[in-house]
Amino acid sequence: PVAWLSLDSSMNDISRFLLYVVAAVRTTGTDAFDDLEPLIEAGLMPEGEALITSVANHFDEIDRPIVLVLDDFHVIESELGHRAGNPHSSAPEQRQLRHIVEQLLSS
Asked: Whole-angstrom Cα distance, residue 80 to residue 101?
């Protein structure tokens, strides 16, 4: 399955970016994020590091390969977004984002 996400500059906010990633991945039919649906619909999702951790944990539950296309990634100006895959990053948020990227790559 393929999930496609067209990015825009509003997704420089890491919380907004991850919520859109979750929405895109859910279109593939995975049930890994089903328990988040009521929280997303009610606007009660955690923020910051708690959101990153939650999303990373849910990616661990995906049981089949999924391709996530991030169209127009060049519009992301957030340093955090660009450094997510940097193996030398040490901030907790960056480690969690790197974990999400690794989960996507290993699926």
From this structure: 13
pLDDT digits (tens, 9 = 90+) for 37-93: 787 777 777 777 777 778 888 888 888 888 888 888 777 766 545 444 445 555 565
CB 107 within 8 A of CB 66: yes
SS3 letters for the chain? CEEEEECCHHHHCHHHHHHHHHHHHHCCCCCCCHHHHHHHHHCCCCCHHHHHHHHHHHHCCCCCCCEEEEECHHHCCCHHHHHCCCCCCCCHHHHHHHHHHHHHHHC
Contact 69, 25 (CB under 8 A): no
